[in-house]
Every structure is written in structure tokens, then in C-alpha cells.
Amino acid sequence: MKTGLFSFILFVSLLSLRGPERKIRILMAGDSTMSVKETTAYPETGWGMPFQYFWDSTVEVINLAKNGRSTRTFISEGRWEKLMEQVRKGDYVFIEFGHNDESKEKPDRYTTVDEYRANLSRFVDEVRSRNAIPVLLTPVSRRKFESEGQVTQTHPLYSTVVRELAAAKKVTFIDLDELTRKLYERFGPEWSRQLFLHLRPGEHPNYPSGREDNTHFNELGARLVAQEVLTAIQGSDLELKDHIIKSKRP
Questions:
Q1: pTM score above 0.85
Q2: Less Cβ crowding at N or C end of the chain, within 10 Å?
Q3: What is the number of alpha carbons within 13 Å of residue 76 lying toward its C-beta?
Q4: 32 is catalytic
Q5: Is 65 exposed, middle or buried (0-12, 13-18, 19+ CB in 10 A)?
Q6: What is the distance in angstroms between the CA of the first residue and the CA of the last residue of the chain?
Q7: In this structure, is the dihedral angle defined by the CA atoms of residues 105, 107, 113 and 119, taken in order, positive or negative?
Q8: pLDDT in tens, the chain (250 residues)
């Protein structure tokens, strides 16, 4: 009897020494369309902000995306190195750049197509070297409608690079450019404004002069884009999909 009790106490003690279960981690690298915003920028919202709330308690999201960054400046500022210092075996690294890479009018961040490809290739290789899992995403589309009600491709060169690289390196790929274009088209030219930072003068204290921005999302737009990413994950072969919170509604 005493032996059984001792064994039970020893078992409980060993369990307590194990500590909390290690979480599945998603690290996010990207630009302002993904990043966490300062309160002074609200209602501007990166899609990575609501994205973190769709996971069960076993998942931790670490959003390291930053406004105005391209693949080149994410490297040159040491942000990629900082991310890699945190990467552990089994982690997921979601990578979405392009808006700033293609901005020729902003030489401080502009990255040529060839440099962009090389930088993304480096990201994939380094993530895999840590036995972690890279996920490549094309940049979200800007809101730009043609007269026929279709959304114009705003990243044709840079999105193509991501598609080609993902296929060549056999990386899990989410075509967020295409998914967001279809999202805007479902809303149409007028109602799709409700997904973006469109504000009349005096409508919000952070933007007293108003704002008409067809690149950055408001809370609704960011949540819907995050849901597009989650749906794509559910259709992938990533084990991560089993940890998406499922609706309890009938």
C-alpha cells in the first residue's frame, strides 16, 4: 500500500517538473499590411492582428512584421536576424512582402525582382535549416477596380516570383494576392471601401483631415483577410490546421 502511494506521489512530482506544454509557434515576417499597429494609427489594422485570435490555446503567434519594410530592409535592419534567433524546431514562419519591395519611388526600401527572389530564397533556406516550416504568401492586393468591376493585378511581377519560388522549393504557398482580389470583387467597387482606411474629414480623431487609402485595412478588412489565410491553411497539408478554432454555432 505504501509502495503504491509512494509511486503515485513520485509520478505527480515528475509531472510538475515537466513544466507547461511547449506551444506551437507562428512567427510572422512582413510589412504594414500584416503588422501590429500603434493606437495612433487606428482604425488601420494589419491582418496579423486578428489572425492571432483564431487559434486554440496550444498556438502562439509572434507578429514581427513592420510598417514600411521590404525584404531588403527587413534584412539590413537586423529584423530577420532577430526573428531567426527565436525560431525553434517545428515553428512556422509566415512570410509576406512585396508592397515596399516594388516601390521604385522609395529607393530606401526598393528591391529589384532578382533581389526579392534571392531574399525570399534565403528566408526559406534559413527557416528550414532550423527544422522549422516556411510558408510563403503573395502580397495582398491593393484595391484598384477596372471598369468591368474586376480588380486589377497590382503586384504582377512580385507575386509571380513568390509563386515560382514556392513551386521550385516545394514550400507551402498561399496566394493572398489572388484571394484578396476575389474578396474585393465580392464586395464590389463601392462596398469594398468598407474594408480599407477610408475616412471622411472629422470622422476619426487620428485622421482629422480624412483618409483614402486603398492599401491598408481597417478592422473589418483585416479580419476578413485573416479569414482568407485561415481558409487556405485549412485546405493545405499543414498540421497547423488542426488547431484553428472551430465555430460552436449550429
A1: yes
A2: C
A3: 10
A4: yes
A5: buried
A6: 50
A7: negative
A8: 445 544 444 444 444 445 557 889 999 999 999 999 999 999 999 999 999 999 999 999 999 999 999 999 999 999 999 999 999 999 999 999 999 999 999 999 999 999 999 999 999 999 999 999 999 999 999 999 998 889 999 999 999 999 999 999 999 999 999 999 999 999 999 999 999 999 999 999 999 999 999 999 999 999 999 999 999 999 999 999 999 997 654 4
The full 3-state SS of 142-172, as one line of letters, equals: CCCECCCCCECCCCHHHHHHHHHHHHHHCCE
Whether residue 197 contacts residue 44, with contact meaning beta carbons closer than 8 Å, is answered with yes
pLDDT at position 22: 83
Q: Which of 21, 32, 126, 209 is catalytic?
A: 32
Separation of alpha carbons 54 and 59, rounded Å: 10
Structure-block grid coordinates of residue 235: 485546405
CB 153 within 8 A of CB 141: yes
Locate 47 and state its grid cell.
Answer: 491582418
Distance (Å, whole) CA 69 – CA 74: 6
Answer yes or no: 216 catalytic: yes
Residues 176, 9: Cα–Cα separation, whole Å: 53
Given the residues 77, 81, 164, 212, the one annotated as active site: 212
Radius of gyration of the chain (CA): 21
Contact present, 130 and 88 (Cβ < 8 Å): yes
**CA atoms of 71 and 80, how far apart (whole Å):** 9
Give the whole-angstrom CA distance, residue 236 versus residue 223.
20
Residues comprising the chain, all counted: 250
Q: Which of 189, 196, 192, 191 is nearest to 213 (CA)?
A: 196
Which position among 35, 99, 141, 216 bears the catalytic label? 216
Residue 62, all three cell numbers: 509572434
